[in-house]
Fold this protein.
Amino acid sequence: MGRLSTHVLDTAHGCPAAGMRVSLQRIHADGRADPVASIILNADGRNDGGPLLDAASMAVGRWRLVFEAGAYFRSRGVALPDPPFIDQVQIDFGIADVAGHYHVPLLVSPWSWSTYRGS
């Protein structure tokens, strides 16, 4: 049963990125991006509503997650330069198997970020 999920950890503070806004977009062949969902991460750095895409909404194609890291760190009282070094983290990825579980975790600080295909 296919699904898309995410989990964000704030590596600067050593905790989940509670309160961070995350948007999901569908990328078309012409490069156009359509918004699909916008969420605020819960206390565990995850979506309260479960997967961002469930089995019924999974589709082969290109997708984008946009994490509002700069706004999140400002809300935590971090003094950031203007413009911040890391503001929005945009991760483009492909879904090739609608029956697969695509987990896109993000480790982020005001100065770096990393991701991988999780399980």
Summary: Helices lie at 69-75.
